[in-house]
Amino acid sequence: MQKILVANRGEIALRVMRTARKMGIKTIAIYSEADRNAPHVKFADEAFCVGPPPSSESYLLGDRIIEIAKANQVDGIHPGYGFLSENAAFAKMVTEAGITFIGPSPFSIEVMGSKLAAKDAVKDYGIPMVPGVDRAIEDPELAKAIAKDIGFPILIKASAGGGGKGMRIVEKEEELEEQMERAISEAKSAFGDGAVFIEKYIASPRHIEIQILADQHGNTLHLFERECSIQRRHQKVVEEAPSAVLTPEVRQAMGEAAVRVAQAVNYEGAGTVEFLIDDKLNFYFLEMNTRLQVEHPVTELITGVDLVEEQINIARGLKLNFTQDDLEIKGHAMELRVYAEDPVNNFLPSVGNLETYIVPEGEGIRVDDGFTEGMDIPIYYDPMIAKLITYGSNRAEAILKMIEAIDQYKIKGVETTLAFGRFVMEHEAFKTADFTTHFVKKYFTGAELAQGKEEEAKVAALLAAYLTDENMAALKAIPNSSSNWKKRL
Ligand code: ADP
Ligand code: ADP
Ligand code: MG
Predict the structure, then answer these.
(1) CATH of span 131-200
(2) Which residues line ligand 2 (CB under 6 A)?
(3) Which of 9, 206, 291, 337 is catalytic?
(4) Average pLDDT of 423-440?
(5) What is the model's pTM?
(6) I want to staple 236 with a disulfide (CB 3.0 to 4.6 A). Which of 24, 119, 228, 364 is the partner?
């Protein structure tokens, strides 16, 4: 592989290109009109505009992207995450164009892209599942019978769902019919597939997932877990590796289960098997993501493995050059997704201009980002600005590093999740690892930060008043000062 096209934007496009360059591979960027001046465009050896800002007219145009690749002697396409990364038809088109898709086969993507097909594929492999049904449900009466059997609360989920979307909690029977209708119509409009199913709503779970690597020679390994329980809207904001609560035995059992899940679909490449665990450390299969995950850096830091390099080598047909026994966890890594969102205001997107943008630096600090000072955050895409990742020899050290890095990170012009990240790191429940996916709902109202902001504003106002008084005094001391002062202004 000599030349790779990265079919993505932002931090992940840059992240992939960095490794490609390190491996002596040339890189091609694609971009929309909104990303003309983006760092991933500047970093690449060559770059091509694919269309106007909306993703449906640019980053999702598989045909156009493959055309560019063919015209420029590209021999590999890396899809990153989001966009076309879990699109089986795209993977197939790439392969049919004689280009290597850096990811699993269209078959694996297709099966795992449907939560129902995924459950069906792994059912004979001894994988514990969340109690529920493994087929699409349309009939409300049948749904009621199933729900009563499993016990409320239940969760109605879209089979094609992703990114935390397409889920509805139902607390009691009376709500079921209406919620189901809504879920089906939402699933149809968001994912083009109205299939929904029912899962037991696990009361206080943690989200723990296992990183997988599988080559084309039958070797499938796991690279331990990532804990991703700090979520808002069923989407991750803080991740870490390893989890502070797994015992070596459960870690091994989950790792082995994840390997079996991957083997069930002849998986090749990097992938992630997601589980929920309950307070007794029982684990249940949720889904598999057939791509590089947003939070992959925490695994890289604790294992020393460059996951993008492995993806590329696997796609080249190379054998993994380490075994399960060679892998061990060293230290602890923490990640905060720095979103352009206002945590005080329900994490609503806060797009605008990055008037000030200064990233933290230092040992044990890694920033994966796709922005520079002065850039606008486009409204068209996911509002993630950066991933702030820290590493320490143990969890407490990684947390301290994170607080230090958050304090050094200076962003002005948009609201961000930085202050929220600090709130998490300093929270007793987080420090003692006594938390679930309900952390945000349970402990965070937004007022915690609003108070900080109010105090900041008060200090600023006092300072301004003080300075004005001083200026006034100074002014009085200078004869005819008012005219001088004006001139100087
Ligand atoms: P991860 O699963 O890697 O932890 P996310 O769940 O946040 O991270 O998803 C990664 C990216 O993919 C995000 O940009 C998210 O918006 C996008 N994404 C994932 N699944 C879908 C989907 N089915 N439809 C649209 N966007 C999706
Ligand atoms: P997505 O494809 O959107 O990532 P997932 O099935 O991975 O969907 O679920 C995302 C999140 O939603 C989980 O991390 C968890 O917080 C919550 N969730 C999903 N299923 C359940 C369940 N059965 N019980 C409780 N929480 C759940
Ligand atoms: Mg998921």
Answers:
(1) 3.30.1490.20
(2) 130, 155, 161-164, 167, 199-202, 205, 207, 231, 234, 274, 276, 286-287, 437
(3) 291
(4) 98
(5) 0.92
(6) 228
